[in-house]
Amino acid sequence: MKERKEEPWKEEIKRWRAKGDDSDTFLPVIRLSAIREKEVRYSRRKVTTTEQAAELGRLLLDGADRECVVVCCMDTRMKPLSLERIAIGTISECPLNMREVFKYAVLSNAACLLVFHNHPSGEAEPSEEDIRLTRRMRKAGELMGIPLVDHIILGDREYVSFVERFGWMRERGERPLSGRR
């Protein structure tokens, strides 16, 4: 059996250290990639209504006993590219950092995002923190050039769409999710 040879860069570092030259800093060269963990079946090619979006979010959130946040990366035609569970919290909260929301959007080459989270209590009514979080995601999406299409909170038998409830997309003259082609 062939002995596995170490990566050439590791050998180079050993040579430098053997000479006693520790003044240089060695930085890792990395490559980021998305890894397909599994697939879920979704019967539609693209999302054209809020009801379809909520159905998509339920694929990963139904039955969760803690608050979770799922990001759906979309292409320009509202076709889902990927789903990622980006945060798992407690029964009453789920802390979220904007970099986690947009990391997968960039890796998926997303044109826009749908964000979902569940309320284990079964009530889909948004809290003040949910409203603040959505405002931050909208601003971050505008800065990144990856707009937030909607944030949907899923309860047991109901959902709340921020677009439908608060009309925040219509403020800027954009069409709601149901009007996209």
Notes on the protein architecture:
There is one protein chain. The chain is of the alpha+beta class. It has a single domain (41-179), classed as Cytidine Deaminase, domain 2 (3-Layer(aba) Sandwich). It is built from five helices and five strands; from the N terminus they run ααββαβαββα. The protein has helices at 8-18, 50-61, 98-107, 128-144, 162-166; strands at 68-74, 80-88, 112-118, 148-154, 159-161. Strands 2-1-3-4-5 form a five-stranded mixed beta sheet, with helices on both faces. A hairpin with a 4-residue loop joins β4 (148-154) and β5. The longest helix is centred in the C-terminal third of the chain and has 17 residues, at 128-144. The model is unreliable at 169-175 (pLDDT under 50).
Features:
single chain, 181 residues, alpha+beta, Cytidine Deaminase, domain 2, five-stranded mixed sheet, 5 helices, 30% helix
Main sheet record: 5 strands, mixed
CATH superfamily: Cytidine Deaminase, domain 2
What is the CATH-assigned architecture? Answer: 3-Layer(aba) Sandwich
The helix/strand order is HHEEHEHEEH
Topology of helices and strands:
Elements: H1 8-18, H2 50-61, E1 68-74, E2 80-88, H3 98-107, E3 112-118, H4 128-144, E4 148-154, E5 159-161, H5 162-166
Please sum up the structure shown.
The protein has 181 residues and is an alpha+beta fold.
